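2024-03-11 09:14:02 DEBUG pipeline.ingest accepted 1 chain
2024-03-11 09:14:02 DEBUG pipeline.ingest length=46
2024-03-11 09:14:03 DEBUG pipeline.predict start
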Amino acid sequence: MNVFFRDFFSDPVLFLSFGILGTVIALGIFYVYYFVKKIQEAEVPS
């Protein structure tokens, strides 16, 4: 496990891959929350 962390911080490709993947997942979670919140707050036309 120690080798993984050493390689993770010394290899920029691996570091950027996990960083970009984390950003994409965080944006996906944000947009799901945003749209669900907007749907719940929407007024239904009668």
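2024-03-11 09:14:41 DEBUG pipeline.report Residues 2-41 form one domain.
2024-03-11 09:14:41 DEBUG pipeline.predict end
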